[in-house]
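Session log. Operator J.P. requested a structure for one protein chain; no other inputs attached. Running the standard single-chain path with token output.
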Amino acid sequence: MSLFGALNTAVSGLTAQSAAFGNISENVANSQTVGYKEVDTDFIDYLTTSTSQQNEPGAVTTLPDYTNNVQGTITQSSDPLALAIAGQGFFAVSEPDGTSASTSSPTFSAQTYYTRTGDFQMDANGYLVNSADEYLQGWSVDPTTGIANQSQLSPIQITQQQFNPVATTDVDLSANLPAGGSSTTTSSSQVDVYDSVGDEHTLTLAWTPPTSPATAWSLAVTDETGASVGSGTVDFGTGGMAAGTISAVDGTTGTSGAAATISLTPSWSSTPITLNLGNYGQGNGVTQFAASSYSLRNLSQNGVPPGSFTGITINSTGQVQANYNNGQSQTVAQVPIVTFADPSDLQSQNGQAYTATSTSGNPIAQAVNTNGAGTLVTGSVESSNVDIATEFSKLIVAQQAYSANAKMITTADQMLQTTINMQT
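Structure written below.
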């Protein structure tokens, strides 16, 4: 039985080395594949009889040894939307299973896949897609609060192609009006504001020096047509307030620390605009300190004109921001990182993707760099973790081992032939 056992063992050795050769071949072929993870080979010995008195030849078989948790080299990419994970975790992605007849947009399989292939680009439908035709999933973000909905993952799609205008409701002014009657001319500043449809209007804020009392300045606000939109009188340093700070507006003394404001009512807006002059008794807005002339420190407003979409950016925290030509940006989604208890037990799929298994553990989507999740490197991709030199070394060993097993078969054949020839 030993000769036949040796034959069977040698055949199993050929089969095992063939499997190892196949894994080596796959690794070498994918040495330049973004996000690819090397597959090594584990050899396992199977016994027939093995005691202190007798050992019969057994067999050898192989199992794949996945290296899903081994980091590949992160390299810079010319693609600004490319993403790489430094550390543990995967991107959650969807694969298309058809096209919607009404919108011509893709429909997606219910199965979620996981990948390290982060060479994402935005397609014609506003989705982020990698080179394996996998669609990046993320958390949706409330545009008002900026808070991500972490209860659900879905393919990220940029649909907001226009930034709607925001009407001006507040104008903030910080300036110094010269004290001591050193100014006898009107001092003015201009600020551009916006109505509800995004049309721009110019407000002129003109200050007239005081006559009596010497701390009371008159303010007149007009629009680009010269029409009045508001006016008021601002007193400085009376009523127990610190000298040079606002004490009263339109003759009414304010409470120290409270906001000093004037309401503006332009004809082209149904909503009043609040002109913020600072705080009563404080020097953080409009003041009247010693100076030779009017000095403007800040004049700003909170309105926004309409804007057209110019592109997206992804930052290191995974926030996907839509950018517009009016200088505004809006966070529309957040990219989480998905971790597993044992990523090496994930099931390999096409396109460098994986699916969860009972032994890999449940997928846990979490924010970047939290609870063991890796960090996000933007504008970069993770290269294959295959080392060519190592694979060639394995190739030499596999080739020699295969030849040795083949030699065992030819030798056993010769010995059997000798045995058979003994009959003649």
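Operator note: The chain has a mean pLDDT of 91.
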